[in-house]
Amino acid sequence: MGCKPTKKRNLLIVALLLGLLPLSTFRTTAQQDTTRLRVVVNLVQLNVAVTDNKGNYVTSLHPLDFAITEDGIPEKIATFEEGNGPTTRLVDITADVGKNTADESASAEGRSRIQDSSSSLEDRPETLSSTLAGANVFILFDTSNYMYRGFVFAQDAIADFVRSLESADKISFYSYSRNLYRAAALTSDRSEVVRGVRTSVAGDDAALYNSLLLTVQDASQYPGRKAVVVFSNGPDNASMVPPEDVAELAQSAGIPIYMISTTEAQLQPVSTAVFDRMSAATGGKAYFSKSWRDEKKAFASIRDDLAHLYSFSYYPQPNPNRGWRSIKVQLVGERLKKYHIRTRNGYRPRPNRFSSGNEPASTSESVPN
Q1: Closest CA to 41 of 73, 1, 86, 80
Q2: 145 CA to centre of own chain
Q3: Successive 10-residue mean pLDDT values, the chain, 369 residues
Q4: Residue-range definition of the domain harbouring residue 52
Q5: What is the tally of structural domains in the chain?
Q6: Of the candidates 260, 289, 307, which is a domain's last residue?
Q7: Final residue in a domain of this structure, among 291, 307, 323
Q8: Which of 211, 260, 308, 340 could anchor a disulfide with 180, C-beta 3.0 to 4.6 Å?
Q9: Does 204 map to a domain?
Q10: 252 and 358, same domain (yes or no)
Q11: pLDDT for 135-153, tens place per residue?
Q12: Do the domain assignments include residue 46?
């Protein structure tokens, strides 16, 4: 008889537990249903090169000379800068909006001047060096077994390139074979970077795309203008990451990739096509050098290109597209349409997932562009 109250108590506890279980499950499901996927894009930055039919740079253009669309939606330029010139903000150009666009473009054409790209940095050291101020340059050097021949010549070309960037903000030097080696973190000390170049040694197989992805990820953590310069002597034979993923990340982060490769890579048609496609998609360039002299010319061309980029940004208009967003930059006015534009062709906003019931919207993570 004494055990009956105990049995009744146990049955009551079991019944309560069984009754509470569906309620707990319902609450969990309700919390999961409140999870939202939000995309926050604060600012999209573009680096744009404008050239004529001969490859000469067109300089002295103005914000109203450019028209930007994202997925066909017109965008307004928020900041504008040419080389090392002062940054023009949107408030500075609103007074000119009422002017006739055709007249403005025509006058801009008159102000434009053609800069001969064949003139080297040695001819104009003060001009080209000063226009690189504010750019962070990440150099990635192939130290795989493809580099056994001509290794010292490549080191010389990179060291000269580092020294020539006197007024660039900071430089970082990485090397790679099967793994990535961060020889010199982003620094303004040129001697430290050159030391990293000189102490690099040849190694194993080449995991170019793995290493390039990590380099782009590092570069994307820093604000302002950035560029990645890759020196490769052959194809990739050890990466797990496809080149398409690397190109998409660089596009989304707004980082142009410049590829300098030798004849070893050029003998591989697939590698040649990948290098061309990756650099073009990010707004950079690909070079294929047959000798150490060509390597030096390629580095000089990259210096010249960085010196003549237009840098501007915009705050995207409302856009429901959470996937790939296509960017198109055009010149306004008939006289300017004969020139060529090179820049990245789009980006993919990175989503931020959180529970709206537990985390305020103000903590949402912005997407770097």
Answers
A1: 73
A2: 28
A3: 52 44 42 50 86 93 95 94 62 44 43 42 37 76 83 90 82 95 94 95 90 96 90 89 94 94 72 90 91 87 90 92 94 93 90 41 35
A4: 39-116+310-363
A5: 2
A6: 307
A7: 307
A8: 211
A9: yes
A10: no
A11: 899 999 999 887 777 788 8
A12: yes
Strand order in the sheet with 325-331: 73-75, 66-70, 325-331, 346-347
Q: pTM of the full predicted structure?
A: 0.73
Is the same domain home to 344 and 198?
A: no
Say yes or no: 333 and 293 in one domain.
no
HEC sequence for the chain: CCCHHHHHHHHHHHHHHHHHHHHHHHHHHHHHHCEEEEECECCEEEEEEEECCCCCEEECCCHHHEEEEECCEEECEEEEEECCCCCEEHHHHHHHCCCCHHHHHHHHHHHCEEECCCCCCCCCHHHHHHCCECEEEEEEEECCHHHCCCHHHHHHHHHHHHHHCCCECEEEEEEECCCEEEEEEEECCHHHHHHHHHCCCCCCCCCHHHHHHHHHHHHCCCCCEEEEEEEECCCCCCCCCCHHHHHHHHHHHCCCEEEEEEHHHHCCHHHHHHHHHHHHHHCCCEEEECCHHHHHHHHHHHHHHHHCCEEEEECCCCCCCCCCEEEEEEECCCCCCCCEEECCCEECCCEEEEECCCCCHHHCCCECC
One domain, residues 205 and 353: no
Examine the domain organization and report whether 318 and 246 are in the same domain.
Answer: no
Residue tagged 């090169």 (tokens): 49
Overall residue count recorded for the chain in this entry = 369
Does 20 reside within a domain? no
